[in-house]
Structures are given as structure tokens and as C-alpha cells.
From TrEMBL:
This is Cobalt ABC transporter permease. One of its GO terms (cellular component) is plasma membrane. Signal peptide: none annotated. It is a multi-pass membrane protein. It comes from Campylobacter californiensis.
Length: 216
């Protein structure tokens, strides 16, 4: 599917769902469409969403402490609708696909490269954090409520900042050396809008415009 259509569809859907004070049955239409188109990855996406729900449940419980149960349920459902929709849309997409989608929106080369390098740096720092965790595990590090544990975590955060700063400096020098002109080049050309892209975008518009069937 076209990455630009994915980004626009996700932006419209997430904004309307996040700002809605009521959950309508029509909000499920784009999700049902994506379930049908991506049946093979449903369980993988749900597994990721369940992991992210650890934070959402914590937020919902904090709202329930003020005895606002309706708001807690609303936050939980809205968050999961957005996560499921985004997970089904962007499952398997890499940083170049997303940057190419931003470029297709004609927002300019600077914005496209800003998105590209932001996602690239997030992946790089995530990989670096995984490597540090493996190193700590190999050295039999055990988390405790102690000054040594806090110092260790502080050093890990500092190492990640230094890694990001060094990589950014090296990238800047490399781009200056190669005559960077803020032009985003698509290696395989612009991807055309297909039938499924139109159906997806139409389903999102129907869901946010024709709000029927109150669920919550």
C-alpha cells in the first residue's frame, strides 16, 4: 500500500478517535478492513499491542482511582483502537518507507529527511540499548534498590546520549562532504495509489464522518 495514504489515514483516524468523547461502532470499519487485508499478521500485531497495554492499563487505573470509571474505559478503548490501527498499517515498515511516505505528501526534503533520520536514530539507539543490556547480563548485573543500580542506569543513559551525539556529528560531516542538498531521492520511484489505498482512505472518512452505533 502507498505509504503516504497510510500516514494520512492514520493521522485522520488517530486524531478523531483521540478527541472523541464517545466510541462509535463506525470506528471499527477501518480496523475490520485491515484485519481482512492483513490476516496473517493479526496475532503478531495483537502481541505488540498487549505489551504496550502495560502502560495504558497503568494510566486507566490512575484515572479509576478518582472513581471516573467511564473515562478510564474510554481511554483504554481509544488507545487500543489507535494502536491496533497503526500496528496493522505500519507492521513491517522500515524508516525509509515512512520517510518516503512523508516525501509523497510534498512536505519538502528537509521534513522527509528529518523523519528519516529521527526514526533511524531511534532504531540505532534501541539496538545500542539491547547491546548494553546483554553486556550487563553477561556481567551478572542484578537490579536492586541500591546506589550502584542507580549509577549503572545513569551511566547507560549517558552512554546513549554520547552515542547519539557522536553519530549526529559524524553524519553531519558525511553529508557536508557529499554535498547534501536536502533533496529526498526515491530509489524505486514514487508508488502509485492503488485500489486498496482508496478503499482504506474511504473507510477512514466514513468512520470519522458518519458516526453511528454508540459503543461507549
Amino acid at each position: 500500500m502507498n505509504s503516504s495514504i497510510k500516514i494520512v489515514s492514520f493521522s485522520i483516524f488517530s486524531i478523531f478517535v483521540a478527541l472523541s468523547s464517545t466510541i462509535y461502532a463506525s470506528f471499527l470499519l477501518p480496523l475490520l478492513l485491515l484485519f481482512a487485508l492483513n490476516f496473517s499478521i493479526i496475532f503478531a500485531v495483537i502481541k505488540r499491542v498487549v505489551f504496550l497495554n502495560l502502560f495504558i492499563v497503568f494510566v486507566a487505573l490512575s484515572v479509576m482511582l478518582s472513581q471516573n470509571y467511564d473515562l478510564a474505559l474510554l481511554i483504554f478503548i481509544r488507545s487500543n483502537l489507535i494502536l491496533l490501527f497503526g500496528g496493522l498499517l505500519f507492521y513491517g515498515a522500515n524508516y525509509y518507507d515512512i520517510a518516503r511516505g512523508v516525501s509523497g505528501l510534498r512536505l519538502g526534503g528537509k521534513v522527509s529527511y528529518l523523519v528519516y533520520f529521527s526514526i533511524r536514530f531511534i532504531e540505532m539507539l534501541t539496538s545500542e540499548l539491547s547491546r548494553i543490556k546483554m553486556t550487563l547480563k553477561a556481567r551478572a548485573f542484578v537490579r536492586k534498590t541500591s546506589l550502584f543500580t542507580y549509577e549503572t542506569y545513569a551511566n547507560v543513559v549517558a552512554m546513549l546520549f554520547l552515542k547519539a551525539f557522536h553519530s549526529a556529528n559524524m553524519l553531519e560531516k558525511a553529508m557536508i562532504t557529499r554535498g547534501f542538498e536536502c533533496k529526498f531521492y526515491e530509489l524505486d520511484g514514487a508508488k502509485k495509489i492503488g485500489f486498496y489505498d482508496i478503499i482504506l482512505f474511504a473507510s477512514v472518512l466514513v468512520a470519522v464522518i458518519f458516526r453511528v452505533g454508540v459503543l461507549v
